[in-house]
Amino acid sequence: MESVTVSSKYQVIIPERVRREAGIKPGDRMAVIVKHNIIHYVPIKPLGATKGMVPGLDTSDLRDEYDRS
Asked: For the chain, which end, N or C, has fewer CB atoms within 10 Å of the first or last residue's CB respectively?
């Protein structure tokens, strides 16, 4: 388990191993979720980056980016 220290500006540095494993790059956006006093940082990926995540899933009836205006 990795640990980090919160700076005086309430910032933390994500350890290199975690950044590599999660594919986090500078400028990436993260969703912050607090549940039961546990903080989760979840990378926000563009819709196009999620294609192919679930092989065999029928996506013919799913909305695409142009539907969400």
From this structure: N
Q: Which residues contact 23 (CB under 8 A, 6 or more apart)?
A: 43
The pLDDT of 1-14, averaged and rounded, is 94
The C-alpha atoms of residue 66 and residue 68 are separated, in whole angstroms, by 6
Backbone angles phi, psi at 58, to 5 degrees: -80, 110
* φ and ψ of 42, to 5 deg: -120, 120
> Is the pLDDT reported for residue 15 higher than 80?
yes
**1-47 is classed CATH 2.10.260.10:** yes
Measure Cα distances from 6 to 10, 11, 64, 68 in Å: 5, 5, 39, 37
**Distances in whole angstroms, Cα of residue 41 to Cα of each of 1, 29, 37, 57:** 16, 10, 13, 27
